[in-house]
Each structure stands twice: as C-alpha cells, then as structure tokens.
Specification:
Length: 63
C-alpha cells in the first residue's frame, strides 16, 4: 500500500453543489485504495468513476 498515489481535488459540481474534497486515484488502483481506506477507517461518502468526454464528465456511481 506504500505505492498508492492519489491527489486531493475539489469534488466535481456534477457530483455535489456543496464544497467538498475528493481523492483521485488511478482506475487500476481502485480496489487496493478502497481496501486501505477501509482498513484505516477513513469515512467514504461515495465512490465514482469519472471519465472526461470533451468538456463534459461521464460519471458512474460505484458505491
């Protein structure tokens, strides 16, 4: 888990109009990241897969 990389970003307006922070991880590290967050009891409100398509975001809620 020491090699997990992420960046903290503002939560997209398409997800919530409130201020918020999200972490962005590589898709191939999703399972491992989720496991680490769970192990360390980090509260997670929701998990989304976001793909950029032109100027829009395609958003899929995973959990």
């Amino acid at each position: 888990a020491d090699d997990l990389e992420f960046i903290v970003i503002p939560t997209l307006r398409e997800i919530t109009t409130s201020c918020g922070l999200s972490i962005k991880v590589r898709p191939n590290k999703y399972e491992e990241t989720n496991e680490v967050l769970s192990t360390h009891k980090v509260p997670v409100e929701a998990i989304y897969k976001v793909e950029k398509q032109g100027k829009k975001h395609l958003i899929e809620k995973l959990a």
